[in-house]
């Protein structure tokens, strides 16, 4: 239970960072060529990496549920 909670918190925070920095980069809120833009871009990239790794762990930890749900769907 605890590992799921912590993983969900990590996924939520990294996803939120990725969304916010993506909006900042897309709408050019920070000027091009500035050091701040590079920092925002780095946060965007690494939060995406963290989110991807978290997703892999999330799917691995819930594999039994995914198999069970898939079997139930295809039985019908």
Topology:
Elements: H1 2-26, H2 35-61, H3 63-75
Helix pairs in contact: 1-2
What features would you describe in this structure?
The chain is mainly alpha-helical. The protein is 86% helix and 0% strand. The chain is built from three helices and no strands. Helix 1 packs antiparallel against helix 2. The chain is elongated. It starts with a helix and ends with a helix.
Which structural class best describes the helix and strand composition? mainly alpha
Distance between the termini: 31 Å
Strand percentage, roughly? under 5%
Total helices: the number is 3
Residues in helix, %? over 70%
What is the N-to-C succession of helices and strands?
Answer: HHH
Give the C-alpha Rg.
17 Å
The geometry reads as elongated
Outline the biggest β-sheet. none
In total, the number of strands is: 0
Low-confidence stretches: none
Mean pLDDT: 94
Annotation keywords:
single chain, 76 residues, mainly alpha, 3 helices, elongated
Give the structure's gist in a few sentences.
This protein has 76 residues and is mainly alpha-helical. Helices cover 86% and strands 0% of the residues. The radius of gyration is 17 Å and the shape is elongated.
């Amino acid at each position: 239970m605890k590992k799921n909670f912590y993983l969900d918190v990590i996924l939520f925070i990294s996803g939120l960072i990725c969304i916010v920095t993506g909006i900042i980069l897309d709408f050019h809120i920070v000027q091009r060529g500035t050091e701040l833009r590079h920092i925002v871009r780095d946060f965007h990239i690494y939060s995406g990496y963290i989110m991807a790794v978290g997703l892999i762990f999330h799917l691995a930890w819930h594999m039994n549920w995914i198999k069970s749900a898939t079997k139930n769907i295809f039985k019908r």
